[in-house]
Amino acid sequence: MPFVNLSWDVKTTKEKKRELMNFITDTIADLTSTDKNRIYVFIRDYDEENVGSPSCPVVQIDWVDLPARTPEVKAEITRRVQEKIAQYPNVNAERILVLFSDVPQHNAKIGL
Question: What is the pTM of this model?
């Protein structure tokens, strides 16, 4: 159940945001064999005056700690997501931050 938050001050179209959300979903699904319907991606847009480091997107991935979510998989997700985000105008590619939080299985549940 990956829960992904992208926070940034990049102005782009809703179509480009949807493309990015789909890319993140597909990347995580492909590298971890996670069902796409169990991956949640949200984009938080901030006005530039509300960001301490403009053009420095932050991607936070909270997910259940499972064996397939290895350091190597995390590194590959990071690489792909950073490369994709770096394609957006005015993004400082050197400052794209990707954070992973591993939640113990007993601390997460979906549905009833």
Answer: 0.92
